Amino acid sequence: MAAWRGAGWEMLRALGRGGTALGPRAAGWARTMASHPLLVPPPEALRKPLSVPSRLLLGPGPSNLAPRVLAAGGLQMIGHMHKEMFQIMDEIKEGIQYVFQTRNPLTLAISGSGHCAMEAALFNILEPGDSFLVGVNGIWGQRAAEIGERMGAQVHQMVKDPGRHYSLPEVEKGLAQHKPVLLFLVQGESSSGVLQPLDGYGELCHRYKCLLLVDSVASLGGTPIYMDQQGIDVLYSGSQKVLNAPPGTSLISFSDRAKNKIYSRKTKPVSFYLDLKWLANIWGCDDKPRLYHHTTPIISLFSLRESLAIIAEQGLEHSWQQHREATAYLYGRLQGLGLQLFVKDPALRLPTVTSVVVPAGYEWRDLVNYVMDHFGIEITGGLGPSMGKVLRIGLLGYNATRENVDRVIEALKEALQHCPRNRL
Hints:
This protein is α/β, with parallel strands linked by helices. It has 15 helices and 14 strands. The protein is globular, with a radius of gyration of 25 Å. The termini are far apart.
């Protein structure tokens, strides 16, 4: 510290002495520096090379990056308003339309994670006083309800225990009672590993003049979803799960019904950053010249484009089958260890994130930490209402292989042998 300060003062004194030779502008700059010495030195940690451990990410996300996606992240920057960037954005839109199975023109990527897409949906659809019906069977329903409350919507929660889903009669009861403008459901509730059926829910909502909003962050690419055919009005997902892209971008699409609600608002959305009218323009969804709104995350969009290209080349049906087969193999290996699956009905188990009942007598953190510390493999515990009840294992995209199942099972087997167990 003393050496750093001494060197700094010597430089400033030298600059001050050379004021005449430097010219009036440079001399003034030197005097300013002399009167405001730096109080914070360069961090010692940043003088060392960046160190990142090698990990196999078998939690609920993020997942390991596919090699092509990793390579795309190393490309050189171009400008966010260059025509070549607009071409890449157009290709991303087409990729989103494919994985969502939609022809919606209002389809784009959000410069932010899945949480940001959730807020984009709610900020643009809901207005203060609107009735909002939320399926709360895990943390993501809780988050949607809280955002709605912060916006001044009239939030009505349909609360269920983790691992439970919503039937059509249950949803119809809520629609008839509360007359919402929007229903929120999570297709893949990653905090509990439950898969929400979607056939018939859009049609039911429209019968009650309600829009259907679906969160597919943890499910997209791992299980079928058909936005147009299932009557989903707003659908969003994230980049860091099955798509194996870096966190920080998300996918979203709006039906014509949802677009009409947005464009007939009486009030402006509470967020300028997530105002869909602006985002629609910069993403070329409104057939008008593109105007600057914000600087998009260019490198992250390169990676997202490649992740969508991979799944397009592979085919959705192949991706769904890959996850179904890898997870079926995982189920068998887990049961071979004597572990119980948290979601009892096989038809309601999420193929991407498997929830396992924490075995009796064990502290879940001990098991998770052992697997990480001894094998470099990430699995996680529960989240929100499922905290302390489950372990969660994710097989996401590039990571959904039998080899990875064998690796995590061997790690869990050893953890069960070595972690302390309370037998009372």
